[in-house]
Each structure stands twice: as C-alpha cells, then as structure tokens.
Amino acid sequence: MRQLLSSLVETGTRRKLTGKLGTTVKTCAALIAIAVIYTTTVVYIDLFVMTVVFLSAILALLFLMYTAGPNGRLDRPSAMDWLFSVASIVVGIYFFVESGRIAERITLLFPLETPDLVAASVLLALTIEATRRTVGVGLTSVVSVFVLYNLFGHSLPAGLGFREVSYNHFLDIMMFTTDGLFGVPLRVAATYAFLFVLFGTFLSRAGGADFFYNFASSLAGRKVGGPAKISVISSGLYGTMSGSPTSDVVTTGSITIPIMQRLGYSKPLSGSVEVAASTGGSLLPPVMGSAAFIMAEYTGIDYRDIAIAGIVPALLYYLCVYTQIHLRSRKMGLGGLNADEIPKMRTTLSNGGLFIIPLVALSVALILGYSPTYVAAIATLVVLIVSAVKPSTRMSVRDVWDALGETTLRMVAVVAACAAAGLVIGGISMTGLGGKFADLVFLLSGNSTILVLVISAMLAIILGMGMPTPSAFILAAVLVGPTLNSLDFSLMQTNMFILYFAVLSAMTPPVAVAAFAAAAIADAKPLSIAVGAVRLAITAFIVPFAFMYGDGLLLNGSWIDISTACITAGIGVILLSIGIEGFWKDSLTTQARIGFGVSGLLFIFPSTAAIVAGVILFIVSMLMTPHLRFRMKLSS
C-alpha cells in the first residue's frame, strides 16, 4: 500500500548542475525572467505567441534539470534529455515562425498541414513527459486518461460517449487555440504567477524570509508552545508568497521542525504543525498563491475582490490552528524558547522592519485596482528600493541576477503542471464532460444541496491529490464548477469553495504531498503527519460550507450580517478547537468535549435558533468542566 501511495507522488530527481552547463542554465533562466517582465509590463505581445515561446523555453530547461526517474544521473543530462530539450526549442521556433498563419487560419475549417501535425504531436508528448518528471504519476495519469477519452470516448455508452473526435480535430483544438494547452493555466503561469513568485524570491533573497521568522519569534517565542506558534506565523507569511504548501514546508520547516522537536514536540506533531501552517499560506491574502490568479482569470472575478473575500476564512483557519497548538502545548506542559534564543522585537524591526513596506504596497495596489501583473511588479520594485536602504540587506547586481534565475527555476514544475491542466480543460470542453459530470453528481445526491456540496468537496480533494495547487483548482473548477454554478450560489462562493478544497488536498490523506515533504524533515510517517495536520486545520473543512450558506464570511452583505457572521464564527472556531483538543485549563470529560464541539459548530453556522442553542450548550459544557466544578465545590 505504501509503495502504491509513494508512486502517486514519485517524480524525477532535480539535478544540481555545475560548471559551464550549470552557469548556462542559470543564465538562460535569468534571461527568461527578464523576457517575462518585459513582455508583461512594457510591451504587448500576442498571448498565443508569448505562451508558446515561454513553454518552449521552460521545457528546454526542464529536461536538463530533471532526470527521467528517481535513479537517473544527477551530474549531467543524458542523451535523451538533450534530445528532448532540443526538440522543445525546435518546436517552439516552429510555432513562433508560423504564428501569423496560425492566427489567421480558421480552426477546424482549414486543415492542418503535415508539419503542423508533427510539431503538435511532439509538443503534446513533451508536455506529458515533463509532467511525469516534475509532478509525478498522478497528474500524468489524469492527463493520459483524458487524452484517451477524447480520442476513443465515442465508443462508450450514450451517458458518457460523444461524437467521434479525430486525431487532427483533437490536435487542432488542443494545440492551435487558447482552449487547450495554451489556455488559462499556462497564461497565468506566464504572467501573474511568474511575477508573484519573482516578488517572493526577491523578498526572500533580500532577507525578508529571515525577518518574518525573527518577527514571529519575537512575537510568540516566549509564549506557551512558542516554537509551534512561530511555525504558524512564519509559515503563513511565507506561504502566502510561495503559493506552494510543499515548497513552504521544505523552506520554513527545515528551521521550525527541528526546533519544535528539541523542545519536546513529538516527530509527527512537529510535522503536522508545519504542514497545517504551510498549507494555509495558499489561502492567506494578499497573494493566496497562484491558484487565486487562475481563479481570477478563469471566472472573470477581479483578483482584488478574491483577496478581500478570502481574508476572514483565512484568519479563521489560522485561529483554529493557533488555538489548538496553544491548548495542546498547555496540556503537554510545553513552554516557549529560552530568552537568549528570542530576538528582541526592537532589533528585529530595526534590522528588517522595512520589509513590511512591500506587503503594504502590494495590498494598497490591489485595493486601488491595479492588475495583478502590475501589483506584483510594483511590489518587487519596492523590495529592491527598501533593500537598498541598509548595506546588510542591499542586493547587488549579482544577487538580482541570481534571483531572476531562481524565479524561473522555481516555476519549471508549476509550468509543466499548468500546461497539463490546460490539456485536461480542453478535453473536458471538447467532449462536454462537465455537463455529464454535473448530472452524475445530482443523481448521486438526490438533488440535496448539502450532499452536492459534500460530494463536490470530496471530488475536489481527490482530483487534487498529488498535484500542485493551481492544477488541483483548475481541474476541480472545470469538473465540479458547473455542478455548483447550477445551484443558487454566487460565482465567488462556488469558486472559493472549490479553491479551499483544492488547497486542502495538499495535506489530506492518503496522498498528502505536503506531509510527504515534512516526513523527510521530521523523520515521521507521512500518514501520521497528514492526519495530525487535518485535525489542526479542521476548521478549513467546515468554514467553506458556512460561507456557502451565508456569505457574510466573504465580506458580502450588510455590516450587521458581516459582523454577526465573523464574530460568531470566531467564537465557534475557538469552541470547536477546545472540543477537539479536550482541554480548557484542564482535561475535559467526553461529554464536555462533545458539548464544546457541537456548540462551536452551531456558532459557525449562525441563525437565531443556532446561536441560542449554542449558548445553552456552551453553558452546560462549561458546568461539566473539571476546573469550574472544582471552583463551585470550593465556593459551596
């Protein structure tokens, strides 16, 4: 069983190229970053041409950087790798040279020429192989199944079948329009997502990541469960920029997990804390990871509105994690860091407080209505300006060059996943599978709204297992979205619901990629870490249902509705956390735990009757707590 689960996340191994080849790859990567910045902020280039050239260049780097399997050579690319890399460049040149003719031809009316078919077939094969090397068998299998379904699905029974699609027809839609490979996911990867990763890389290189860790240490290091609380704060702040739970775990977890274990946290618990904290970063405004950019592009909702709507649910997420960590640490008798290990807040702010300015600039630019592309560019420029204030943070020309190259190299796996997701989207659109899928969900749910939501949440998690967050979201949005959109919910509600469960797939068993990343650092079983992370972040699986039935949590509605929803949900999260941990000043009885948990749920889903029932149940639960019963006995 374990081998089967491991195969779902198995990828090729990333090489650490050195010498002339390593320098050449880094140089090409930096030039790609400069080209992206130039074409997205300075000049306008046809979107199809831009994405074709971008994908070709990334694939060429990818085949040099990643081995064909876990046992491939790490010192240099094989002959096959060089062949794939050169083929990527040749195909890119062909599409670029023929872009004028491709733009003028009418899809499906003008037949594809033989060179078109060859180039498109090669690019399709390269994309699937790149996905397998970087993302693993999971997404590759999904893409392969959809390709086969497109080509042979006409032979299936009427419920799943459709009219026959020829291979030429398939390639025409997939490779020569913006409805397939060069669709929304890849466009986002080549624009918004790339520039926000650039911002995060520059901020980290200038010392922003160290500042966030020191800031979190100064803020929470002395408190009960200080190391775990540091992990929550620093991982959340870093995760909103990285946009990848797995990347966040590897980056911040390498520091926080060993500290937690040294101060008494068990191996599984230390990993669970880091996974829960890192996963939430992709839901935390203002950046929310690259999936939010895809949501904006796919739905047409302004990214600013998505960021604003995501504030309260994200805060509730971290309130749940923070509260449980506090209660667990008190129950285990775990304190904070030693005084000599905690940086002074004044010193921390003096050394790196200027790094708050880029985040403020980013938020202000979003509120003022600038496009995500310009928001990221402005924030990156501000990072360069504030880092130049002090010699200790000032970035040299070499630092800037290295940051440019690092950004491109960090995007390689994301681009492969986004390209693969585009193939799936094109296939679903071509066959009308989305509508058939909606009919199947309604059939299974018996037209019950709550069952539709439950099934949709489960499908979003399953579709996202073993995949990067952007791919998980777009697959779920295309398959599950039509089902939810047919109900009486707003576009914001349905897509925010899908986004949450797509992100949560990173830590949900059995294929929890973030937990696998943490397992290597914590030296614990991935399944134990994943189960613990889900427990710490349990609110994230509940709040999406709450904002589907009352979007005050998305800051939509009157001030009274919004205030009531936010306050009651905050109370509910704390009560639910107490019930899950079974501790409040002392260990709770089973009855008291159930009472606190149920009262918390009643507060999260507010109505007059629910609040009254929640208050009554809370009072009864309080009377059952050993601490209060002891005090009452003394007073009598």
Provide an overview of this structure.
- This protein is mainly α and 636 residues long.
- It has 3 domains: 2-138, no CATH class; 192-552, no CATH class; 557-635, no CATH class.
- It has 33 helices and no strands.
- It has helices spanning 2-9, 19-41, 47-65, 79-97, 99-104, 114-134, 137-152, 167-175, 184-189, 192-206, 208-220, 226-242, 245-262, 267-281, 289-299, 303-309, 311-332, 345-352, 356-367, 372-387, 397-431, 433-445, 449-464, 469-479, 481-485, 491-504, 513-522, 526-536, 543-549, 559-581, 590-604, 608-623, 626-635.
- α13 (245-262) packs antiparallel against α14, α15 (289-299) packs antiparallel against α26 and α24 crosses α26.
- The chain starts with a helix and ends with a helix.
- Mean pLDDT is 86; it is low at 1-9 and 630-636.
- It comes from Marinobacterium lutimaris.
- It is a multi-pass membrane protein.
- It is found in: Cell inner membrane.
- This is TRAP transporter, 4TM/12TM fusion protein.
Spans where pLDDT lies below 50 across 5 or more residues = 1-9, 630-636
Strand % is under 5%
- Into which percent range does the helicity of residues fall? over 70%
Q: Over all CA atoms, what is the radius of gyration?
A: 25 Å
- Kindly report the oligomeric state of this protein: single chain
Calculate the terminal CA-CA distance, rounded to whole Å: 58 Å
Broad structural category: mainly alpha
**General form:** globular
Overall tally of domains: 3
Which helices and strands, and how do they pair?
Layout: H1 2-9, H2 19-41, H3 47-65, H4 79-97, H5 99-104, H6 114-134, H7 137-152, H8 167-175, H9 184-189, H10 192-206, H11 208-220, H12 226-242, H13 245-262, H14 267-281, H15 289-299, H16 303-309, H17 311-332, H18 345-352, H19 356-367, H20 372-387, H21 397-431, H22 433-445, H23 449-464, H24 469-479, H25 481-485, H26 491-504, H27 513-522, H28 526-536, H29 543-549, H30 559-581, H31 590-604, H32 608-623, H33 626-635
Subcellular location: Cell inner membrane
Organism: Marinobacterium lutimaris
Domain TRAP C4-dicarboxylate transport system permease DctM subunit: 124-550
